[in-house]
Design goal:
The chain has three helices and four strands; from the N terminus they run ααββββα. By secondary structure, the protein is an alpha+beta fold. It folds into two domains: 52 residues, no CATH class; 36 residues, no CATH class. Strands 1-2 form a two-stranded antiparallel ribbon. It has a two-stranded antiparallel sheet with strand order 3-4. The chain is rod-shaped, with a radius of gyration of 32 Å. The structure holds zinc ion.
C-alpha cells in the first residue's frame, strides 16, 4: 500500500513540475480554449442577425441632392427625384 502512495506522490510531483515548466503554453492553450468557447457562444446571435436582421434592400436610388446611393424603400420620393434624407429634401427645396 505504501508503494501506491509513493508512486502517486512521484507522479504528482512530476505533473506539478511539468505544469510549472509548461505553464506559459498551458495558459496560452487555456486562453485559446476560452476564446473558442466565447466565439461559439456569440455565433448563434450573430448568425441570426445576419440571416434575420438584414433583408435585401432592393434596388438602389441616387439621392438627387448629395448623390448618396440609398435603398429604394428608404428613399424619400418627391416627384421624379429621390432623396436619401429629409435634410437633402430641405436643401433641395431651399436651392429651388
Ligand atoms: Zn442626400
Amino acid at each position: 500500500m505504501k508503494e501506491v502512495i509513493f508512486v502517486s506522490v512521484v507522479l504528482l510531483v512530476l505533473f506539478v513540475l511539468t505544469a510549472i515548466r509548461y505553464r506559459k503554453q498551458i495558459m496560452a492553450l487555456l486562453n485559446v480554449w476560452r476564446m473558442l468557447r466565447s466565439m461559439r457562444q456569440m455565433n448563434p446571435t450573430r448568425n441570426s442577425q445576419i440571416n434575420g436582421g438584414t433583408k435585401p434592400a432592393g434596388p438602389l436610388v441616387n439621392c438627387g441632392k448629395c448623390g448618396t446611393w440609398v435603398p429604394d424603400i428608404q428613399s424619400i420620393k418627391i416627384g421624379r427625384a429621390s432623396y436619401c434624407s429629409a435634410e437633402c429634401v430641405e436643401k433641395s427645396a431651399q436651392a429651388a
